[in-house]
Specification:
Blueprint: E1 2-4, E2 9-12, E3 18-21, H1 25-35, E4 40-42, H2 51-59, E5 69-73, H3 78-86, E6 91-94, H4 99-130
Parallel strand pairs: 4-5, 5-6
Antiparallel strand pairs: 1-2, 2-3
Helix pairs in contact: 1-2
């Protein structure tokens, strides 16, 4: 992975998958608004705005509300997990975790996201088919 310094950090792997990250939650929210990423992985304990606040903020905005959101955190109590899930997190992974656990969570979430996108696309196609092809205007 190649690390690029700048306003935010960015890394790319050999498949062209890009990861952007901020250490501050408020700056992460700004970055998410700008990039509209395919997925967000977030810790809970961050300066500026914690992960709960990041999720709550992004969940209230039309453009970012549907972005899959996974917590990766050392917060392991039942209350912490429940709070994250109640705010709308798609998954909650506790540290330490294995690469397999993380990749499984990502693949599960991207698979579900693809199904949703396909369903929306099919509904739009069906709606377009039932519209009249010719609407004569009477004078």
């Amino acid at each position: 992975m190649k690390r690029i310094q700048g306003e935010h950090h960015r890394a790319a792997d050999s498949r062209g998958v890009y990861c952007y990250w901020r250490r501050d939650g408020a700056l992460g929210v700004r970055l998410a608004r700008e990039l509209l990423p395919d997925m967000i992985l977030s810790d809970i304990l961050m300066p500026g705005l914690d992960g709960y606040g990041v999720l709550a903020t992004l969940s209230q905005e039309r453009l970012t509300a549907a972005i899959p959101f996974i917590f990766i955190t050392a917060r392991v109590t039942r209350e912490d997990t429940r709070k994250g899930m109640d705010l709308g997190a798609d998954d909650y992974i506790t540290k330490p975790f294995t690469r397999k656990e993380l990749l499984n969570a990502i693949h599960t979430r991207t698979g579900k996201q693809k199904v949703l996108v396909d369903q929306i696309s099919q509904k739009q196609t069906k709606s377009a088919r039932i519209l009249p092809m010719h609407c004569p205007i009477k004078s």
